[in-house]
Amino acid sequence: MPSFLFSRILCVMPVAELRPETHPDFELEKEHLSGTVAAMIRQIEFWEDRDRQMGADLETSIILGDQAEEFAAMLSPHVHQPYFGSLKVRVAGREQTLYVGKHGFRDVKGPHTVVSWDSEVGSLFYSQALGWTPRRGSAGVIRRRRQLDVSQKTLLRVTDLYDDEQGGDTGGREEVLLRRLQEGSTAGMRDVVETLQPEQNDAMRHPAGVPVIIQGAAGSGKTTIGFHRLAWMTNADRGAHRARPEACMVLMPNRVLATYAARILPELGIERVVVTTPETWAVGLLGLEKLEVTDRTLSLLLTDRDNTRRALAWRKAKLLGDARMLDVVRTHLWNRFNAALAGQGLRETVALRGREDQVFTLDEAALAGLLRDVFAADPLDGYRAGMRRAIEALALSTLNVPEGEEASVRRQLATPLTTLLGRIFATTTPITEARRLLGSPAELAASGLLTEREIALLGTDPLSGIPTPRRAHADVTEIPLMLAVQAFTGGIGRLDGRTLEPFDHVVLDEAQDYSPLLYALLGRATRPGHITALGDMNQGMHGYKGPSSWEAVQAQLPGAQVLTLGRTYRSTRQITELGARIAATYNRAAAVQGVDRDGAEVQRYAAPAGPDGELPLIARAVKDAQAAGHANIAIVTRRGVDAERMAEALREFDTDAQPITTQEHRFRGGLVILPVNLAKGLEFSAAIVASANADTYDESTEYERRLLYVSASRALHWLALVSTGELHPLIA
């Protein structure tokens, strides 16, 4: 998926398909596995026996029994594969072997304990370091790292990755990786716990509490690593930085990809994480779930051949997402609210026990002073809630209210306060206020941050030729501006009941497509230092929404560090080389190192135009891919309308492809046909690029070459390029 599927996969080859195991320790490891499985089953049976979960009274016994059942439920799925690796270590002159699995297990009566992959000790399995100093205890030395392929309680293979008695590095890590890479794709993203590579492990375990941007080429594993980092953040070892799964959020570029990726989280032991798109999260926060969200800029870029109009739409979208717009909105709201204060005041009689009724008054000047203080405090839950708290606090102080009567005073002030705040804030809604601002050159100029040319650009409408829905709608380029209004007025963050709180951790996939303004807003909505951004600045298909550089993101996330994954794992050498040829036309970055995995030559299908167009060629390519043993196959088109029409027409050629043309469709595996904008982030055993020619992908336009690169980089093992007439010059 986003990034690769490389070693996300458990080894599921039947024992009969494996070569006979010849490792000298195979029988010893087989015996240890049998003992570990038996120990786990005994522990589960103990937990499930409620008669043995007795406390001092009935209530305590029930609580202990419920907890024990929960522990049993958590351990049970791991019995079929208790671990996947081991470490032989020497500590203080004593050697011991530690087994590493997806779930920690302590064998209190024997030697079958398993350490969790995301623990401090578990990290040693992936590292290249040979020594370590724990937070407590003596320094240790790694004597051996060993991969253990286990499936259904059966040991399949033993592979030494490092053994100091065999001269150190055995080459086993690369051998295991290549075995995983040979496996086919699935209909969902799967974990890489077993085969994390050292650079991926380092990125995943980057210090908690520090914002991190993981830059990596297609197939480098960045998205998968982001999910694993989220699981790592939920481990108790993170201390004060530990994240609660239910308080975390993952943002994916579209719902097809979100559904595809979300399946990995339960495999990593975390449930209840919100996996959604920025637009779905935004309209939910705005309380506008029925609002239709469009991306008319993308529609223009995919359909309009007028480069002047395309450039104008691109520049306007970039400006709408500029981080300066946050202060443009703030200045606009400051002027609006101060104007609304004119003639406003509050006079309310308050009853207190044992005292005469007190009168609490606020005039316009006092309200203006409180508003100034609230703007300076910039509360998470917004100016309206902040203003209410400020007025209540002033009332309690001015009237010298005893602590026991504070609640009563707040109740007495509730109705008049709501009325007052309504007069100040009620006319401000995120949609109307964002559009009011964009429609007023004077308001746009008020902050002094935008030039006259930029203000004029915001007043243009390069998208006038793109249809709009009949029902209420908003464009993706407007959403961050509306969110900014919401953040300042009603607050931004995670709703827990009626309380707004920061997210514990947020992961952003395809991070090169999120605007600096959205980064600034997410920084407000999340605990400081708890954002993980995953992307590739050279792959952006939606650069009109994204930053021009990672430095622009770092400016919005103080202390953020950029980590680069220098190796790509997804595709065979033949497919990787083709993609590199396309990317070299716009990517000035250093070449990315690929895994030297040989595969089938890239297949090219070209023929003169006939009455059926390229349909016979595509049908033939599908049959060839299936004959080569591939099941999950994608036909990638340039536009959604192309995919819809082609899916219907291919049935005449005995080819039934499931169309995925909107975000509501799900990828369930098999043969699919989908546009390039929905294919990005997904990967398939085989891919067929339809209309792979210069008429479809304009060679002179960088954006078109990026689209071609995305189309041609979806395949793990087998790639076909199809065109009537000549193929595109970059891939011919």
Automatic annotation (TrEMBL):
Name the domain of life: Bacteria
Q: Which UniProt key words apply to this protein?
A: ATP-binding, Helicase, Hydrolase, Nucleotide-binding
The UvrD-like helicase ATP-binding domain covers 195-572
- UniProt xrefs under Pfam families: UvrD_C_2
Q: What is this protein called?
A: UvrD-like helicase ATP-binding domain-containing protein
- Give the taxonomic lineage as stored in the record: Bacteria, Thermotogati, Deinococcota, Deinococci, Deinococcales
Which residues of this UniProt protein bind ATP? 216-223
Matches recorded under InterPro entries: DNA_helicase_UvrD/REP, P-loop_NTPase, UvrD-like_ATP-bd, UvrD-like_helicase_C
